[in-house]
Every structure is written in structure tokens, then in C-alpha cells.
Write a structure and sequence with these properties.
single chain, mainly alpha, 0% strand, flat
């Protein structure tokens, strides 16, 4: 559960960064001809240009849009985090599963 929450926070953070970068590009293009373009880089790096933004909707696999933040995050998690299905394992994955199950036999255990 902690890893899901951690991934959720990571996705939210990336969404905020993406949104901030998009806004920054638009604002930078509008004023680049009159000011130093490094000002925008400094504001982004120092986090002085951050505005709170909330992701509202994304397109779901069935063609409809999400209706709230929780549903949006769930759709993103379902898309980004793959299901662990042992029936689809390759030989490599089967070896890894076996190694994890077998206890380590070293002198310092």
C-alpha cells in the first residue's frame, strides 16, 4: 500500500512539473524578445514560479473521461503500473521468482 501511495505522489509531482513547464514555455515565448531567457530557467529551478494546479480529467480506455482526482489517479496508476501475472512470465522472470523464494545460503546469514 505504501508503494502505491508513493507512486501516486510521484505521479502527482510529475503532473505538476509537466504543468509548470508547459505554463513556463508559454510565458517564456511571450517575453523572450524583451528579457533574459535565463530568468525563466532560474524561476523554474528555484521553484519561484510554481502555481498549484490539479489534474482534472484524463481519457479512460473506454473512451470516457475521469470525473474526479481519485478516478484520474486510479486510471493513471492502472496504466503505468503493470499487473504481476505469473502466467505471462518469461524464463528470465521465472528464474528471478525462484531465486527470491529460495533462502540465501551464505556463512553470514
Amino acid at each position: 500500500m505504501r508503494s502505491i501511495i508513493k507512486n501516486l505522489h510521484c505521479i502527482q509531482e510529475h503532473a505538476l512539473i509537466f504543468t509548470d513547464c508547459s505554463h513556463m514555455r508559454t510565458r517564456t515565448r511571450a517575453r523572450t524578445h524583451t528579457s533574459n531567457p535565463w530568468n525563466a530557467v532560474y524561476r523554474l529551478a528555484s521553484n519561484k514560479n510554481r502555481k498549484s494546479s490539479t489534474m482534472t480529467t484524463v481519457l479512460k480506455p473506454d473512451g470516457s473521461y475521469t470525473s474526479n482526482l481519485n478516478e484520474t489517479m486510479q486510471v493513471m496508476l492502472d496504466h503505468l503500473i503493470t499487473k504481476d501475472d505469473q502466467t505471462e512470465d518469461t524464463e528470465y522472470h521465472k528464474r528471478i521468482r525462484k531465486q527470491i523464494k529460495d533462502p540465501i545460503q551464505t556463512a553470514h546469514d
